[in-house]
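Trying the structure run again after the queue cleared.
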Amino acid sequence: MIEWRWFSGWTDDELAPRLEKARALVRNFTAASGEMTLEAGWNQVHSVSTLGREQPGPPLPTGLFERARGVMETFDFSDPRIVRWHFSPDTPLDGRTVLLELKSLGARLRFLCAVRVGDTRLEIGETCSVYGFGFVTLEGHLEKGREWFLLRKHHDTGEVRFEIEASWRPGTFPTAWSRLGFALVGKRYQRAWHRLTHARMRELTRHHPEFAGMPAHHGRVDHSGHELEELGPVGFYTQRAPGRLKSQLEEEVDAVERGHWLTPVGLGVLAGMRSLSAPTLVSRKLAQSPGARTDPLSVAFSKPWVPRVLEVLALGELVADKLPTTPARVKWVPMTGRIFMGTMAAASSVGGQTRRRVVLAAAMGGLAAVASTWAFYSLRKLATGKLHIPAMVAAFAEDALLAALATRLMPLVDDTATAS
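Done. Tokens:
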């Protein structure tokens, strides 16, 4: 079950029979929670934000925790400009089927998919209270997976936190262009929605208690999405910085399965620029990441003394690169060394995963190292020959670019290493 429309959504009279039909759907994946791991191809998202504080002890009847609970039960935490929830309040929350209206391109393009609340939690303990629910995607959804929304109140401090945990992978697409569009911009919309969810929860619970437990619109089908001007625009292209400021997000781990190609290719590019930069980066992240490893390459790179030695050697390479006696990187020996380093670094970044993935990563790292070696050699020749830029200036400019790329690549390597 999936529908899409341009420029308009669905009326209550159209949604009601579709919601009834969706109640007969089953979930579109078979994996259990413990099987939904990065190694098995499932993307992972986890975030935590502090909503505020109320009086210490168990939740108060009219306190922040209970207001947030009311917001959750009407799904009002979801920004209606990206995802709007359509549901019937007559059915219990546990097991409730919901239609999600997914919006993109400024709400010009809309998809209708179904999910079901699979589990609910309400625990009032001695030190902490927890409330929340998780939903699973149903047949025809654009994604496959489950997502948890949880409130936690720590009784000693009165602090109330909101958490999101999700495991997902691409699902069913009605057209080839929708699949391509999701691959190109889907994660941007996911990040924008993810951050605005935390921002909305803070705004609704702290400044709009009158909305708690009240659907935005009531009819044959109830709808989420009270309008909040305080949040400003969605900020599709610039959501990272504004979202962090507005939601005061304290922790975010977006371990999307980028290691298939982006991390190995990035490490190969680094190796083509400076051969030791890639293994140094991977070794440092592996040494900092706890966890048992079984593959020999990752075990060797994760030893505490290895990154220290590689860092010294990498610094030496930075100096040697600027000496006039250093041979061109496209010569047979330097080129072979860069390919070898790119291959090893890429393979170790996915160490502990399937042999096929390790071999594929190694091949991609080696090929990227070849391309990077020739590309940056040609750029240096162009800069110093035709543009008459001093060789030392060109070398330091490449060093600066290397540092920038390594900084961008660090969290990707960290996510993959942690998963292994």
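The two ends are 36 Å apart (CA to CA). Worth checking whether this holds up in the mutant runs.
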